[in-house]
Design brief:
339 residues, single chain
């Protein structure tokens, strides 16, 4: 959302810069964007709960998650990264040292990818080292224990194999669930970074000609981004309280960013075209872009398309999931025309 220009139409810019009108628009946008964010993130969560317990539940959640992965990948590559690059390439920033000497947007994006990988590795190691073996449960009752010595030995071997297999399967399911929850939480952190940047930049802007179309564009933006995050939250199987908290945090982040941007402008006089604001926008945008790229490609797309047994055994589901991934990417990419 770096919108400053060093040699643009000065008369038009001055006509659009109306602080009072811009403040009214921003206050209206706080409520509009909050409502659309709630709708976007709640929809996949409610669909998952409606289908829960039905035979198609796992398939519906998987397709929602693939659509979500497409939205998140497009958000990082089509929205966040170009905006971060534009902010650090702005003439107010690029004329300074060291910003004109090095591609900091790419570097900070790389740091975001490595940081997400470090969190992933650390959390996975913690889960592996603290995994709890489920208590032993007998496969057969005492009355079924054979009396013949030969059959008794075979029975003990069979029971041991079944018990180990059951324990391994339960342990694997537990690790997958913990992994899904970790992915959802790290993903929300990356999206919150992005939402704060959007909100603060819009809150600092005094250009009513820019704010007016942004309200509609960001409303759709929040709906699709909410669908993305909500799909991951739905699959992770959080408790009702945790799900509500995560949905609420996503819904309020952009409105809070707008209010924070208005406060920053009132206190400092910095608007969205000042060099300091552009540098902060570029660095935070690059960092969140790296986190989102890693999460979309590694923890969402790669896990579902290459390590999901249900998708591997159902060719139709794999095709449907790929179509959902493509539709999610296209839907979010089209919004880049306006925001």
């Amino acid at each position: 959302m770096a919108s400053s220009s060093c040699g643009g139409d000065t008369a038009r810019l001055l006509a659009c810069r109306d602080g009072k009108a811009a403040a009214h628009l921003k206050l209206a946008s706080v409520f509009v964007i909050f409502i659309t964010s709630v709708v976007g993130i709640s929809l996949p969560v409610m669909l998952a709960r409606i289908f829960q317990g039905r035979p198609s539940y796992d398939k519906v959640v998987l397709i929602i998650k693939c659509f979500a992965a497409g939205v998140i990948l497009s958000t990082s590559l089509v929205h966040v990264l170009p905006e971060a690059f534009a902010a650090l390439s702005d003439c107010h920033v690029a004329s300074r040292h060291p910003w004109k000497d090095f591609p900091f947007s790419g570097l900070v994006t790389l740091i975001g990818v490595l940081l997400a990988l470090l969190v992933d590795l650390t959390a996975s190691s913690h889960v592996d080292s603290h995994s709890i073996t489920p208590p032993y449960t007998p496969v057969r009752g005492q009355e079924e224990f054979p009396t013949d010595p030969k059959k008794s030995a075979e029975f003990r071997v069979e029971t041991a194999v079944l018990s180990v297999s059951c324990h391994d399967r339960q342990g694997e399911e537990l690790q997958v669930k913990v992994k899904q929850r970790l992915v959802s939480q790290v993903l929300e952190i990356g999206i919150i970074f992005h939402s704060v940047i959007i909100g603060v930049t819009m809150g600092m802007s005094q250009n009513q000609c820019t704010i007016r179309p942004l309200i509609a564009a960001l409303s759709f933006h929040q709906i699709f981004e909410g669908l993305g995050l909500g799909g991951c939250i739905a699959q992770a199987g959080f408790s009702f309280a945790t799900t509500t908290y995560m949905c609420f945090m996503f819904a309020v982040t952009t409105p809070m960013g707008i209010v924070l941007g208005m406060i920053i402008f009132s206190a400092t006089g910095y608007d969205d075209s000042s060099a300091n604001a552009l540098i902060m926008e570029g660095l935070l945008g690059s960092l969140s872009s790296g986190i989102l790229i890693y999460m979309a490609l590694v923890d969402l797309i790669a896990v579902d398309f290459f390590h999901n047994k249900m998708m591997a055994s159902t060719p139709f589901l794999k095709k449907a999931s790929y179509i959902a991934l493509t539709l999610g990417s296209i839907s979010m990419s089209i919004l880049a025309i306006w925001a």
